[in-house]
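Worked example 2:
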Amino acid sequence: NVSREILQESRDVKAIREGCTKRILSMLEDMAHNDDAALRDKYAAFWGEFGTVLKEGIGEDFANRERLAKLVRFASTHNEGAEQNVSLADYVSRMKEGQEAVYVITADSVAAAKNSPQLEIFKKKGIEVLLLTDRVDEWLLSHLYEFDGKPLQSVAKGAVDLGKLQDEEEKKKAEEAAEQFKPLLERLQASLKDVAKEVRVTTRLVDSPACLVTSEGDVSGHLARLLKQAGQNAPETKPTLEINPEHDLVKKLDTCEHFDDLAHILFDQALLAEGGQLEDPAAYVRRINALLVTAAV
């Protein structure tokens, strides 16, 4: 009898596996980058059926990671629909002058990703963001850190830094807002100490009053939800609440007599906007009802 372990460690089997992999990758590369539209359409059909398998390969096959990275496709804010037809090379070729990173966002659906508050500043500046909505995409990001010398940067992690895409006036305005709203930030931090790691002002928001982000190196809210759905324990981390100093609700927050209720509502709405679930939906409804009663009087 020949055991499976012996075959897996066999030099001959390894050589056959590597040879088959190289041949298949060469065939896929020819289809994906061919001048013939029919062949490119054939690759698009292949991607629709087996795209998630190729994405898994980026984490499983280190030797061919760069070749696989050129074959993966994503949905994008550049396109109207939800079709995954944008390559990383396409994205890099369209990057704005001064842009230093490939911006991505993970979400449960393309609609949720496109409507995320975290995209507002990128939409305003016309910066393309790749929409990663497959379950395997979080796994992909943990193994693919850069493409063509450009780092992959989640728009939902860390403080937004657009570098050269943000002018000096915008940076100065952000610094002034941080100082002006310092007392409010301290009040919000005290009110939300059990759920928020930090509260700070942000430049990433345009229309929304608040959003949640995670620190670099922490598990994203999306990944935490996927782990829980799979029956696995997700590391307990608190997100950072970022507020929009230009929003009317934030401007009136400091003088509101229901400050604590409104602070928690802001946090809960930011959690819902990113696709999260409330720990205590009844408390959220109770706070909303209390404010509605006050407004109706």
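The chain has a mean pLDDT of 88. The chain is about 50% helix and 10% strand.
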